[in-house]
Amino acid sequence: MTTDLNKVPAAKDSVTVTDPDKKPVTDFGANWTKEPDVSKPGKSTGTVEITYPDGSKETVEVPVTVRDENGKTQADKNDAKATDGLTTDLNKVPAAKDSVTVTDPDKKPVTDFGANWTKEPDVSKPGKSTGTVEITYPDGSKETVEVPVTVRDENGKTQADKNDAKATDGLTTDLNKVPAAKDSVTVTDPDKKPVTDFGANWTKEPDVSKPGKSTGTVEITYPDGSKETVEVPVTVRDENGHTQADTNTPEAGKVTVNKGETPSAQSAISNNKELPEGTQYDWKEPIDTTTPGDKTGTVVVTYPDGSSEEVPGVTVHVNSDTDLINAKAGNTPDVPRGVEIKQGDEAPAGIVVAKDKDDKDTTFPEGTKVTWETAPDVTNNGQATGKVTVTYPDKTTDTVDVTVKVVPSDADKNEVKAADGVTTNLNKVPAAKDSVTVTDPDKKPVTDFEANWTKEPDVSKPGKSTGTVEITYPDGSKETVEVPVTVRDANGHTQADKNDPKTPGNKVKVDDPTKLTDGEKEDVVKAVEDANKDDNGNSTLPDGTKITVGDNGDVTVTYPDGSKDTIPGDKVVEGKTDADKTDVTVPGTKVEVGDPTKLTDGEKGQVEEAIKDANPNLPDGTKITVADDGTATILYPDGSYKVIDGQDLVTKPGQTTADQVTPVVPGDKVTVVDPNHLTDAEKDQVKTNVEKANQNNFPAGTVVMVADDGTATITYPDGSVDQISAADLITKPMAAGQAGKGTGTTTTNGQGAPAGQGKADQAKTLPQTGNEQGSLLAASGLGMLLLGMLGLGGKRKKED
Q1: How far is CA 469 from the centre of its chain?
Q2: What are the residues whose beta carbons fall under 8 Å from the beta carbon of 777, sequence distance 6 or more?
Q3: Which residues of 630-640 are buried (b: 16+ CB within 10 A; e: fewer)?
Q4: pLDDT tens digits for range 303-350
Q5: Closest to 751 (Cα-Cα) out of 657, 612, 670
Q6: Within a 10 A sphere around the Cβ of 115, how many other Cβ atoms?
Q7: Low-confidence residues of the chain, pLDDT below 70?
Q8: What CATH architecture does domain 159-236 belong to?
Q9: Class of the 411-493 domain?
Q10: Where is the composition biased (Basic and acidic residues) (predicted)?
Q11: pTM assigned to the model
Q12: How far apart are alpha carbons 359 and 370 in whole angstroms?
């Protein structure tokens, strides 16, 4: 209800009454019980009382809009319209207020209003729908607006979203003629198929009043109500109906580029300098320059007036790597001798170098490969020639003759041998690499190699087996080694596990414990063999056991199953002492003394000087002491010593050697066929036994003779003589029941030499003996020294 300023509307006109069937009722009376305030424009409220013919009454609140002085409400003055391009998602009614726009008479936005749908749009399916919005202003005035709504599809898209609209390519028109809007655009669906069901109009027409290029804007409206705009360039022909494309003829040319570069479309038109200034050149389709060779393309020439034309048959040459690079022989790399080189194998770095077309140094493209085409002969050291293929990333190739230097390989330089004592469990092949040891020329361990069994050892039964390991070095060289393997028994034991070789009781004396001679090694072997024998002299080690000795005296006991035990060298050998290494010469002339059992200090001094004179090369620091009986002890700087028996150093005037020496009877008798007539061989054996038994007893120059009956005559250098009876030296094979009968005696003749026979003065050399510490007691010498000191030394015969 609206009314003019200061005019109260009729009460009956201010209400409407309907019966139960919704039909209008007019038979009633009405009056204002409270009039609305109509003194000022805007919204006011009054109360109307209605009186029906039956006398019943009711009241109604009546809102009244009071027009302004010009007789207008806010609805009259404002401009309300549907929001342009209103879209919504499927099944979603947009807000009513967002669906309209309201402006005041000055075109300024109005936001102070209420809005509601009196008819909602159908949003249940994609497409175009229409609803009605009622707008209520603060003054109570109202108006309605029809609102077109575009409903997006299930993907939330309209036709404008899904279709692709663009300006018609090469659109031209005559002077002063605007082309049809729909002809000025092309629309395609998501499948690139043409769309024709749309409306189009120029929202901004192109300027067609003069020839040349102009631009307009076309608005496209789709059936679902969605819209989009497209900028449309238009070429306006001249007064003769021509464009610049009509009056110019571009010519296809050729352009060269490197891989990956974009060729210049302008350079591909050979007469581009003859075409109008401002002409643009574009490739219709991009040219693939990732691979070398000649490519063909089409250039689109667009003139300043907007007209364009296509120039097909343009050639683009993409340089190959071989177009840009010359591969030449480079350095002469070292190649290990004997290494297998196959066609296609990678060649050494630097064997070829890259040069550009001006023969200047350059680099090969990343990804270039150099492989052998013809392998060099690497059988012998020295230079060899071959041929390599350079394959560039673009698959083009160059072939180059090259030279290599064949050098000793890792296999030539390294030393490989089977690992010591390789053992394994039954049915388990040991790792090949663990089964070998490799050292370089400096004897340092080498670990950078691969190893595999070319012939596996038989591990199916306990014992010794042999396999073959092939070793491959980083330089590609190879070598093989035979590897003995010991397979443990079912209990996991080897013969080394089950045997414990004994160490000799006495160490073998050697000159240098770090470098034994062959003879010393043989002595050690014998000592170990003897230490591992039972009471019957049989070896306690398994048959077939081998004993070897290293330079440092380490003993390796290798059992038949290949397992080994080791005895450290310091357990079986020791260095010789000064006493061991020094030969002592007994003075050739004995010192004459008054009493050989009790020398004076002066006589002891003479003995000491005699020893020094006979041994001028004794080590510095050596000390000599002389006992009362003339026995001399030579003490070396390392604590070892030797003893010379007094009888070899002193004599009483008129006393012979036979007076002083008691021959030792050999422990073993020689069995002879005829005790009355010994053979020469039997005599030699008797002689050897006597000499051996007295090797530290007889003075040098003593002669032993054996008679036919086996009696031994000992003649000393002074001519005196001793004898050992045959009974003590020989025996005849005994008949049954005769064993154990008969003994012999030793006879001594102090006056065996004829009167007046001279005695030769000679020096003799003592055997090398040492003492424990360096240092074993010189058994016979020290014993005689001690006995001499007690007055109980070897036999001294009284003077005749």
Answers
A1: 23
A2: 771, 783
A3: bbbbbbbebeb
A4: 998 898 999 999 999 998 888 899 999 999 988 898 888 899 999 999
A5: 657
A6: 19
A7: 734-800
A8: Sandwich (2.60)
A9: mainly beta
A10: 55-82, 140-167, 225-241, 508-536, 562-583, 592-601
A11: 0.40
A12: 20
